[in-house]
Design a protein that fits this description.
The protein is an alpha+beta fold and about 240 residues long. It has two domains: about 80 residues, OB fold (Dihydrolipoamide Acetyltransferase, E2P) (Beta Barrel), CATH 2.40.50.140; about 160 residues, de novo design (two linked rop proteins) (Up-down Bundle). The strands form two sheets. The protein has a five-stranded mixed barrel with strand order 1-2-3-5-4. The longest helix has 19 residues. The mean pLDDT is about 95. The chain binds zinc ion.
């Protein structure tokens, strides 16, 4: 097996390693999430420029080490700089990347996860370029987060009460019980509006490109995020810190 390989990759983030090096978290198309070392902090700027900023899509050349892989080359596919330049797009994008960073185990090959993040970034960049209104960046971010839960195998039950199957009203949500609940069924749950349950259902069913045109109020969007955070806590054991 050759220990050097090439793969498309999306930069999730980076941090310093000791005095001289940097660790870049890459979501790759070939190997899933790969912890990657970039040797020589000063060299990073000169050799890789802005290619290792969050949201950048690159073709990476990597050397497979025992614990960390080493980045030996990077060519830009899409900089997605427009997402970093627009505050609302940046906030939503960082929340999505935060979830991908926390929820995905390292070195598990999951091409659909890579494709999901690539298509989210494509839509976000198109909206930012097209001068979309500030509030339109949040629904697609929530859509990407819900679809990531779906790919991880945790689809919340939203069409009817998760316990008794009654169709409406669905005013409560419980990750432990599996989704939306009617007012009468037992289960530790928090209150949400029926619009929140519908928004989640629509976001899961529709492609991300449609989410950019979806009208959703601030309360609905916030409650949707609370449900996603609860699902992540309960099923994936990770705490999301950033709200889109
Ligand atoms: Zn019920």
């Amino acid at each position: 097996m050759p220990r050097t390989y090439k793969t498309d990759a999306i930069v999730l983030g980076s941090h310093k390693l000791g005095e001289a090096d940097r660790v870049v978290s890459l979501l790759t198309a070939e190997r899933g999430k790969v912890p990657t070392v970039v040797k020589g902090v000063r060299k990073v700027k000169s050799r890789f420029g802005g290619r290792l900023e969050p949201f950048s899509r690159i073709q990476a050349q990597l050397y497979e080490g025992r614990n960390l892989h080493t980045l030996t080359g990077a060519d830009t596919i899409e900089t997605n700089a427009v997402i970093r330049d627009r505050p609302e797009a940046l906030k939503a994008g960082l929340a999505v990347i935060d979830m991908f960073s926390r929820a995905i185990p390292e070195l598990e090959h999951r091409p659909r996860t890579y494709n999901l993040l690539a298509s989210y970034l494509r839509e976000a960049a198109a909206s930012a370029t097209g001068g979309a209104a500030a509030h339109t960046f949040r629904a697609p971010a929530l859509g990407a987060q819900l679809k990531l839960l779906l790919l991880a195998g945790y689809l919340p039950h939203l069409a009817s009460c998760a316990v008794c199957g009654r169709e409406e009203p669905l005013h409560r949500f419980s990750a432990a019980t599996g989704g939306a609940l009617c007012p009468d069924c037992p289960g530790e749950a928090f209150n949400v509006s029926p619009e929140t349950v519908s928004l989640m259902r629509v976001l899961l069913e529709q492609p991300l490109s449609k989410a950019t045109r979806m009208e959703a109020g601030n309360v609905t969007v916030h409650e949707t995020w609370l449900c996603i955070r609860e699902l992540c806590r309960f099923y994936l054991g990770c705490d999301l810190k950033l709200e889109p």
